[in-house]
Amino acid sequence: MSYRPAPKISDILNKLKVNELTQLCRKFLLPQHGKKMIIVNRILDYITNVEKEKQIYDFVLHTRPSIFDEIHGMQNTRTNVVAGRNDNTNNPKNDTSPVKKNAQEGVKKKKVRIYQEDHEFASCICGGMHLTIISKACVVKCIECNKSLHVSCFTQTTCVYKDIKHYKILCVLCRLKDMDPFYPVHKALWVKNLGSNSEKISIDAHDLKIWKNQNKEVIMFCIQMDNKRLSTNIPLKQEWPKTLTLKVNGNISEKILAPSWEHKRRDNPLKITHILKAGPNEIDISITNYEQPKFFVLAFVLCNLNTEQSIIENIIFKNTLSFKEAKQRIIHLLSMKHGDDEVMCMEVNRKISLHCPFSLDRILIPCRGVNCSHLQCFDLKSFIDVTKKTKAFNNRWKCPICSLVLRPKDLVVDTFITYVLSEVPQNIKEVELNKNGEFLINNLPFQTNYVEKKNVENKPHDNTVDISHITTKLEKLDNSEELQKSNSMFPVIDEIIILDSDQEDTKPIITHKNNTQETSIHSVLQDVEDIICISDDSDNEPITSDISDKSFNGYK
């Protein structure tokens, strides 16, 4: 016995245009020539089982879902007209049939779609509003929020139940939550794909006054869906259709024109809080798609306001590497192969600028992307400031070195570079790193030229900056090569003049340092041969200065 498709599928195919029927034939590898009626009959002959009929429904649902609404409206109209005729038969005096008028108005007036946040499929592309989905068995969970999703909505093809385990999908709301870190998503007000050229929706804004007092914004996002990137490598890019007209409560609020060939259009999200009213808002959306149709999803979301300072504090608190991890990361980057000639980076020292490429000032909070393969860091605060001021939304959050998209969750604070910045003098603009991760200045290992040794207690702990394995030798100035060079240029002072403040001046008294105590006072007076004591005491006797429990021999 041959398979008989549903009677309404013939009406659905007749509603399609010739080019749409041709696409359907191309999809099912059927001949594409002939008139419209011939093509429709050819497709009807192709339907030999339930699975093929589902494929037809999925194609129409993706191409022109409004056909289902039209057919449903026509059926209601026929029912109402028949009921009106029966009323006219019973009441022949009634010249006008209000039932018939209401039926005609029902055909013209499009149904308002209402989004339900607590719906089982609220995070799906369909927003839980597609009642025509046949294959309800092919349902998966979002890999992050674990909410139910229709596989056919994302793949735009018929789902095979046997392969359902292979589908790993990230839902629409989980994609939108990282769209704009300055306005993180609080909740969704309306989410749905733009399957038709027009949509009529309703948004409830009873708490509009509270939203404004809490600095919340209602923002309209639009993203393009790619059925080949369902969970990984998803580009979070704001993109409008070719044209879009937004009407709020009957007034045209926004109009997005088609991009001109000589100018690239900036597709920024739209803030519509200021045009909403408290209570239900009727919104009409009209779009035109590109010549090669793209699959868009539109979302109206309520967003919180996130300040720059809170973003910086959150990154420092959550994404700071320990010193050990940061140094291992540096050594790993130094050992990576670089270039087409497979030259190892560890063979040559790598230079790192201590100035931010954004502000050109010295870096305060060194930051880098998790997936960045370069050593150079940039200042976190400057990066956030520049990102905030960038008008082109899709050009935000880009690394200044490698142009990778770095949202807050992709940034890390490098404590190794933080340590380098704290040790290197302010006048040094760049340092070099060798293959062991040690930093050099002017091709020489860095040594702090302080006379006093640093207190060990000032060293950071393991959870911040561990510098125990970095040997910073603090040598005495008299044993350093730099001091020997300076001694050859300048004469060594062999005398110290000690001044004693009294009213009358007397003859200066010169005292020699005891040679046996040279080592005991070496930390206080270095390279000193003679000490001259000048005093204005009344006595003219030689003055003896006692240093280290032994006196000098004073003489006139």
From TrEMBL:
All residue ranges annotated as the SAP domain in the record: 13-47
Record carries keyword Transcription regulation: no
Domain of life from the UniProt record: Eukaryota
A GO CC term attached to the entry: chromatin
Gene Ontology terms, MF aspect: SUMO ligase activity; zinc ion binding
Pathway where this protein functions: Protein modification; protein sumoylation
Family annotation (InterPro entries): SAP_dom, Znf_MIZ, Znf_RING/FYVE/PHD
GO biological process, one term: protein sumoylation
Pfam families found in the cross-reference section: zf-MIZ
Annotated ranges, domain SP-RING-type: 339-426
Keyword annotations of the record: Metal-binding, Zinc, Zinc-finger
Region (Disordered): 82-103
Compositionally biased intervals (Polar residues): 82-99
Family statement drawn from the similarity comment of this UniProt entry: Belongs to the PIAS family.
Record's protein name: GATA zinc finger domain-containing protein 14-like
UniProt organism field: Piliocolobus tephrosceles (Ugandan red Colobus)
